[in-house]
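Quick log. Single chain, no ligands specified.
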Amino acid sequence: MTTAPESEPNWNIPQNKTAIDEILNSVERPQIVYKHSYRCSISMLSKRSLDSGIEELSEVADAHLVDVVSMRELSDYVAEKTGIRHESPQVLLLSRGTPYWSASHGGVRLKALQDAVYELAGKD
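-> predicted structure:
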């Protein structure tokens, strides 16, 4: 069984509901929330895809990773607050505290996220 590392380069790791509330209430920049399982091969493939470009996306959006196994309460809290049913892997793009775009399972790919982030950036 694979466990979550203490830190992830280019990803912020929220530790509590207060941190999730700050992410969900942010109006300054778009927020990316990636729900990841270190036990799931599909999640690992999705994360590898996102990792290849998340540093670039971090120039225009804040990127957060929630480990759905060790942080299940926080993952469920994100679902409750956004109204987007929990799935894993799952990526959410939030704009001014509102869900703008999301994808799960095989749809979690860097290109799709990039397209959504740049579409959103063009609307601001």
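The chain has a mean pLDDT of 92.
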